[in-house]
Amino acid sequence: MSLALVCMSHSPLFSAGEPPDEIRADVEAAVSVAREFVDEYDPELVVAFAPDHYNGFFYELMPQFCIGLAACGVGDFGSDTTPYRVPAEAAELAEAVITAGVDASVSLQMQVDHGAVQPLELLFGSVAAKPVIPVFVNSVAPPFAPMQRVRLLGEAAGRYLTTLDKRVLLIGSGGLSHDPPVPQLNTATEQQRALLLNGRNPSPEVRAQREQRVKAAAVAFAAGEADIQDLNPEWDRAFLQVCASGVTRRFDDYRAADMTEAAGHSVHEVRTWVAAYSALSTAGAYRVTSSYYRPILELIAGFAVTTARPVT
Ligand SMILES: O=C(O)CCC(=O)/C=C/C=C(\O)C(=O)O
Ligand SMILES: [Fe+2]
């Protein structure tokens, strides 16, 4: 068995927006470092922890964690809609995680959005290039599980994955500090409330409206005119240090309300990193082998890409 990790921010504005050339080139260079790391590792199985932005999971019934036994992209922001190749190990992973006392849901029809799909597209070219087990981690819909529970999810997954005779790549997708215009239940308009409750399969017009809202917010944010929270590079750098420290219990100290206040409503996407790094820690001490960070207004993101592997 072996484990390796890539955790990276995602941004719909990277694929569907128009960031300045210099920023696009800088992020692409960071992603290509991760891609080389993955190419060299040549994973046989990918476990991808990812959030959702009210495309596959809704307040009608919002789990904190869900393991996909089958999955397909909804195609928001032009993302890949090819069905995932989910391997038989997905059911075993679910069994192991739930038996370990982490109450994950399972889905035989998981719908995923750009948050899950973008890293797979960037690292592999397609979601179907590798067998992938998708694991949803609630990152935009309060109330949120304590961070300790996210760590335990990751550790339970990692303990199962280390029993496999396979090279397994762990992916965490999202974060760091950012506050893009994802509707919030406590401030939603009537139309947004219906979306949050169950906005599955929106019409092309509604989909376009949602996407346009995010693109317009990015333009305004870069011009210093958006009504959203600032990025918080200090918070981001401290979080990256915790990841690099290898002491995953330090994740437990983060409190949901403090995170939102310091680093925006979507900072909770770092929960996918917590799960992935905690899973990696079950293979023993690890080392972060590359780390990119840049606060990027045009992508509304404290944007980071890290790779890590066990110390041999
Ligand atoms: O309008 C909506 O409901 C969706 C908005 C949305 O999907 C925004 C996504 C932004 C990110 O994924 C991000 O910056 O992490
Ligand atoms: Fe996101």
What does this entry look like structurally?
- The model has no long low-confidence stretch (mean pLDDT 97).
- The chain contains ten helices and ten strands.
- The strands form two sheets. An eight-stranded mixed β-sheet has the order 5-3-7-2-8-1-10-9, with helices on both faces.
- Helices cover 39% and strands 19% of the residues.
- It has helices at residues 12-15, 21-41, 89-99, 114-124, 147-161, 190-198, 204-222, 233-245, 256-263, 270-281, and strands at residues 2-8, 45-50, 65-68, 71-73, 105-107, 110-112, 132-137, 167-173, 286-296, 301-310.
- It has a single domain (2-310), classed as Protocatechuate 4,5-dioxygenase, Chain B.
- By secondary structure, it is of the alpha/beta class.
- A hairpin with a 4-residue loop joins strand 9 (286-296) and strand 10.
- Helix 3 packs across helix 5 and helix 5 packs across helix 10.
- The chain is globular and about 50 Å long.
- The longest helix has 21 residues, at 21-41.
- Belongs to the LigB/MhpB extradiol dioxygenase family.
- Pathway: Aromatic compound metabolism; 3-phenylpropanoate degradation.
- Catalyzes the non-heme iron(II)-dependent oxidative cleavage of 2,3-dihydroxyphenylpropionic acid and 2,3-dihydroxicinnamic acid into 2-hydroxy-6-ketononadienedioate and 2-hydroxy-6-ketononatrienedioate, respectively.
- GO terms for molecular function: 3-carboxyethylcatechol 2,3-dioxygenase activity.
- Residues 6-303 form the Extradiol ring-cleavage dioxygenase class III enzyme subunit B domain.
